[in-house]
Amino acid sequence: MAHNPSGALMDGVERRSIDHVPSTERHGKAWHQGPFWLTGGFMLPSMLIGFLGPSMGLGMGWSLIAVVSGMAFGTLFMALHANQGPRLGLPQMIQSRAQFGSRGAIFPLAMAVFIYVGYNVFQMVLAGDALSMFLPGQKIWYVVLAVVAVVIAVVGHDLLHTVQRYFSYLTMTIFAVVTVAAVLHYPMSDATPVATGFSGAAFLAQFAAAGGYQISYGIYVSDYSRYLPENIPDGKLIGWTFLGGFTGAAWLGSLGAIFASYVPAPDALRQLHLVGDTVFPGFGAVAVLATLPALIGTSGVNAYGAMLSATTVLDGVRRVNPTLRLRVVGVCVVGAVGLGITLSMPAAYMDSFHTFIAVMCYLLVPWTAVNLVDFYVVRRGRYAIADIIDPHGAYGHWAWRGLTAYFGGFVSMIPFVTLSFYTGPVTKALGGADLAFVVGLLVSGVLYYVLARGVEQHDASLPAEEVRVPA
Question: Where is the chain membrane-spanning (predicted)?
Fold first, then answer.
């Protein structure tokens, strides 16, 4: 972990949370974002995304195209958020105050907390399942893993980066072997595929699931780029974030599509165990256990992000002092809530997972459109940092432009959504094709641009020459 003479780390523990990171505490390089986000995508939930197309009858080739293209599309939007961290020196979601106001931003902030905790629940269930294949006491492992994730999050930003970076080397090495074994065991063998056809609805469903899954990472990005130097090159930062985020998620999603194309109702962990043992007996256990580091590390990332968003919600209602104690308490509360939900989760979580991914996509797409249009097009990177931090600052309590664009985009998506309990009329007319996220991006982005043209640029807290217009 980097030592910061200004005291950003106290006995190795980060003390900052939703406050601004000054230039004297900046450290790190653009390429560090690559392995960090690779591990963030190199998780079993990414593999589950790849199950969707084959489960709807989509052949392996088409499923792979849908997974890869969907992941690339979603990661592009996710990576564009990386530029906001070093430019503003703030966590990702507090920046929403500039578009929605300090009170208006409570909705996207609460949405982010829901997503963080939801991800942790599914990840802890999967991690507990992995350990229970070889060790007794599944629910005990939930507790152990949750405690480890919370400890990593309590130490903070630099440890999270270190853990994610070095875990990426381990998981890539093992899964490179597993991937070769899977290709030899299924596509290049005499195995009979269970899904061979093409359906436009299935292709779009798989594409939307992969794209929405990656867009969901948008709420994280600046949290882990805000300590980078302010003069870091835009292209390198966005490029490394895209490369890492896309590679990890697309790799695991593609592996899931291969499994699901040949195995009816596949189980991710059991398939890893089976395919791994084709390399040599016992390697299947190594492959299964190799999923744990990413699940644990990313659970720490989720707990940290949920703490930042929840603290910002509290600060919007009643001004809080972002102390180390508040950060630690926040992380522990988030960890406890996630653990409680995990312990009560039903065994059949796959249906819940796909519904969760869909709802998450529908909630996040309008936010990412508004946030990115504001940063890159409307204000062009110029913000008053002090007024974002201050809930009573120049951006106000309620920013009607951002709220109108967000809810306008969300409402426009309703006829296009596909959920286990509701299917929009346009989607029915198109045979089940899910175009909701495309509609949401376009409507929210265009509507915000139209409403926000000529909005005053607030940069009172920083000299204009210190606020660089992003490339």
Answer: 36-54, 60-80, 100-119, 139-160, 167-188, 194-216, 237-263, 283-305, 326-349, 355-377, 398-423, 429-451
CATH code (residue 315): 1.10.4160.10
pLDDT band at 456 (very low <50, low <70, confident <90, very high): low
CA–CA separation, 13 vs 329, rounded Å?
Answer: 14
Cα angle: 381, vertex 214, 312; to 5 degrees: 55
Residue type, 271: Q
Tokens of 200: 């436009």
DSSP helix/strand/coil, 423: strand
According to the model, what pLDDT value does residue 3 have? 39
The residues, any chain, with a CB within 8 Å of residue 173's CB and separated by 6 or more, are none
Residue indicated by tokens 């409403």: 451
Q: What is the residue-wise DSSP string for 271-308?
A: HHHHHHHTTSTTHHHHHHHTTHHHHHHHHHHHHHHHHH
3-state helix, strand, coil in the chain (%, to 5): 70, 0, 30
CA angle 326, 329, 330 (to 5 degrees): 80
Please name the helix (run of DSSP H) or strand (run of DSSP E) that holds residue 260, with its range, or none.
helix 234-262
Q: Are strands 13-14 and 9-10 parallel, antiparallel or unpaired?
A: antiparallel
> Beta partners for 201?
none
- Paired with 418 in beta bridges are 423
- Which segments of 290-374 does DSSP mark as H helices, in order? 292-317, 324-343, 350-373
For residue 470, the Cα-to-chain-centroid distance in whole angstroms is 23
The parent domain of residue 109 ranges over 9-366
What's the domain count of the chain?
1
DSSP state of 197: B
Residue type, 62: W
Render the burial of 138-153: b for 16+ CB within 10 Å, e for the rest: eeebbeebbebbbebb
What percent of the chain stands above pLDDT 70? 93
Tokens coding 25: 């505490």
445 falls within a domain: no
- Per-residue model confidence (pLDDT) at position 351: 63
Cβ atoms within 10 Å, residue 137: 12
Does the pTM exceed 0.85? yes
DSSP 8-74: SEETTEE--SSS---GGG----GGGHHHHHHHHHSSHHHHHHTTHHHHTTB-HHHHHHHHHHHHHHH
pLDDT of 348 reads 61
Angstrom distances, CA of residue 341 to CA of 130, 158, 329, 345: 18, 28, 19, 6
Span 20-33, average pLDDT: 91
- Taking only the tens place, the pLDDT of each residue in 278-308 is 999 999 999 999 999 888 999 999 999 999 9
Q: In this structure, is residue 431 part of a structural domain? A: no
Lowest mean pLDDT among 151-165, 324-338, 447-461: 447-461
Structural domain contains residue 434: no
